[in-house]
């Protein structure tokens, strides 16, 4: 009986070590993702600011129109909360599905559950605040890829696309999307802090 108990305990210890290592890697990937979001928000907002400036003083000169159409498209970056807030959850999901969360110990388990709850909250909040800006932008401006205005549009077609813009609608959407980007940055900064706190509970020699 003593040998069996020792063996079961050794197996459980190895399983815990494997989970903790995988969890640390997931958290590190999350932190890198949230940091990329925080770093990307200012350039998104700069594009939206330029759109708003153009709407305030429309200029149909070719260079101005070309820049506007590109900024309309670039303003749509990170416009979907469900995509932007996309954590690494394979380890957490396995811990939950196998009923092995208890292996982590109370402090790490509690911190992890709090963090995952905040991820869900941030995700749902951003989804609820989606503005429709991206759908509108992609409908207005033909693209070669997600963030590049189509090179097949002639100069006159680009100017005509600018002429067709409903300025009040574009202004409203751009302002709402800019405000939502502030929320995205705020939530991502909070998740960085919380993920780091969870990671700090994992000894470095276990990562």
How does the SSE layout of this entry go?
Elements (H helix, E strand, L loop, with lengths): L1 H55 L5 H13 L6 H4 L5 H8 L8 H23 L4 H8 L2 E3 L2 E2 L5 H9 L3 H34 L7
Helix pairs in contact: 1-2, 1-4, 1-8, 2-7, 5-8
Give a written overview of the molecule.
With 207 residues, this protein is mostly helical. It is 74% helix and 2% strand. The protein is built from 8 helices and 2 strands; from the N terminus they run ααααααββαα. It has a two-stranded antiparallel ribbon with strand order 1-2. Strand 1 and strand 2 form a beta hairpin. Helix 1 crosses helix 4 (90-97), helix 1 packs antiparallel against helix 8 (167-200) and helix 5 (106-128) packs antiparallel against helix 8. It is elongated and about 70 Å long. The protein starts with a helix and ends in a 7-residue tail after the last helix. Residues 1-10 have low confidence and may be disordered.
